[in-house]
Every structure is written in structure tokens, then in C-alpha cells.
Amino acid sequence: MRRNQSNPLSRLFSGVAVTLLCTLILLAIAEYASGLALKAIRDKRPSFSIAYTAEDIRKLYDTDDPTRYAQILSESWRQSDTLYSPFVEYRMTPYAGKHFNIVEDGYRANGAGPQDLRAEGRKVFVYGGSTAMGIGVADDETIPAYVEQALRAAGRDDIQVFNFGVVSYYSTQERIALERHLTAGVKPDVAVFIDGVNDFYYCTIPDVSAWNERLIQLTRARSRMPLALELSHRSNVVQLARHLGGDRSVSVREWGSFCETEADVDKVVHRLDANRRMIDAIADRMGFKALFVQQPVPTYSYDNRKRPFPVKEEMLGYHINSARGYPKMAQMRAEGQLWDRNLLWLAELEPADGNAYIDTIHYSPRFNKAIGGRIAAAILESGL
């Protein structure tokens, strides 16, 4: 009889094995279910771009030639293509297309023939994010292209305008990009900085870039992160718990961050203002001029009911930060607390007629032309 009885130690091992197996099965089911839940949550959010039809393009671009802009949009995925670059972390990937061209020196073509960064003559460098680079428009319809067209229409055929806009760049990266040009012996006569949208998109101090998470992932293996911590970063269950706990970054899959407090907004304003002061000091010592452009945003002054398609707050994602930041900057400017030397305040600007935005934040060709014209006028009027 004793031989037929189970060994207590054997029963213990069997119980532990069954418990572990059940736990693993439950965890796998929980991970799978959480992954499905997160996908449903994320898919419920409106997309950041519209599935364009010919009629959509007519309305968004104010055009009678939707086929041309359909071709431009077919290359638009290239306009977010970046590669690693020291100090600034990334830059635009060189590309040669029909409507979109990035040369090896890192600037976007203006559609008016070849440019030479090292040729004699006056040069204007334009720095900014995707709005300056020109998402969704052709080479000759970007803000820098329209700046050059306006300057040449005013008789300044000796000036070349270079578009150094990069997707998701903000003032810190632009300052570093300028410094890299200067240390390489490439100096502009005028450096233009178009800012506002992306500084508030990245409501994180100390600064991080759009490549921050990517670089963290690449260096984690070398830093030997504990396995439990690594698994928690990858767990759908943990992600779902964060979402249910109120972490909006789980459902808003972007690189930025929300400004949770007024102190966060103040820090972003200080960062933008400090970068402008540093750039102006560099320009003064290095013998060129700087022009700072406070760009229009759809969250300040602009009536979004004018759009051909409605844009709800959740579609703006982290860009909603500027709805709190711009009024604060406007008040500080009125009180003389912001750096205002060579500051071109275009926050209230919009095109005289037609549509302003082709998606949530990127400008239409008509709006790019209006902004480019104002920048060119500022360059000419102020003697920059």
C-alpha cells in the first residue's frame, strides 16, 4: 500500500509545475488580450491624415489639378525618412524624386535648378521642422522656395535660399545644426529659424528628439538593463495598465509629450527663448544675421471651422500643447519678456483666401507662399 501512495515531494513538484504552467498560459492569454485591446484603442483614434480622394485634394490644395498633388503625396512617405547624424541625432535621407529631392548636403531642393552650397554669393539658410521642410508639397512650394522666389522677384537674383528643414526638428536641434554648419566652414548671410509647432510638441526638459526612444533601444543591450525591467517595457499588460491609469502616451503613438502643468509650458517657452538668444549671440560673433519666425499653428488664432474637413482635438495629439503655449508667449511678448530682436511674429497669419492646412498642422502651398513672402519682406526691409 505504501508503494502506491504518492511521494509528498513528487506531489509538491507536480503542483508547482502545474501552477507555473497555468500562470504562463494565463500570462500569454493576458498579453494577447491586452494587445488586442491596445490595438482597438489606438485604431479608434482618428488618423492624422485623410484618405485622399481627387475631390479631397481639390479642397485641401485649392487646385484644379488633383493628379499632380496625388503624385506628390505618393512620395510623401519619403518626407519622413531620416538617418543617424551626430549631435543632432538624425537628418533627412538623401533622395531624388520627381517632386521631392534631398541632396547629400542635407537640404531640400527648391525646384528652380541646381544649388551650390559653396558657391560665391549671398546665402539664406532656413531651419525648421516638417512645416519648413514642406510635408505634402512639391520642392518649389515650400516656405524656403517661396522666400527665394520673392527675393528674386524683388531683384535679388544673387541670393540662394537653402531649405535645411528636417522632420520633427525643434529649436535645440536647429541651433546645433547651425553650429555644425559653422564649424564645417559653411556660413550663411542670413539664418532663418521657423519655430513654434515642434517646440511645444516636445514638452520634455531636458531635451529629447524624435530618435530618442530608438537610440535608447539600441543602447539598452549594452547597458545590460535588468530582464524584468526590459520585459515590463515590452509588456502589453503593462501598457494597458498605464493607459487605464491615465497615461495618454500609450494611445497617442508619437514621439512627443504632453505639457501636464503650467510649469511644463514655462520650461518650453524658456527653451525656445534661450535658443533664440544663443543663436543671436552666435550670429553676432560670427558675422551673419538671424531671423526668428514665430510660425502659425492651428491651435492659436486660427478658426479650424474653415477647414474642408473637421479636426478634433484628439487628432492634434501632442500639438495641443501649443494651445497653452502660444497665448503665454503672446502675453510675454506684449510685456517685453521675450527675445524680440529680429523676431517675425506670424502667429496670427493665415492666407487671405483658400485653405491653410493640408492635414492637422502642415501648410497648404497657398499658406507656404504667404509665410515665405512675409519672411522675404522681413529680410529686405530690415537690411538683413
How would you describe what is shown here?
The longest helix has 37 residues, at 8-44. Helices cover 46% and strands 10% of the residues. It is of the alpha/beta class. It has a single domain, classed as SGNH hydrolase (Rossmann fold, 3-Layer(aba) Sandwich). Residues 45-49 have low confidence and may be disordered. It has a 5-stranded parallel beta sheet with strand order 6-5-7-8-9, sandwiched between helices. A two-stranded antiparallel sheet has the order 1-2. The protein has a two-stranded antiparallel ribbon with strand order 3-4.
β-sheet strand percentage: 5-15%
Outline: elongated
CATH superfamily: SGNH hydrolase
**CA(first)-CA(last) distance:** 103 Å
Counted by DSSP, the helix tally is 14
Compressed to H and E, one letter per element, the order equals HHHEEEEEHHEHEHHHHHEHHEH
CATH class value: Alpha Beta
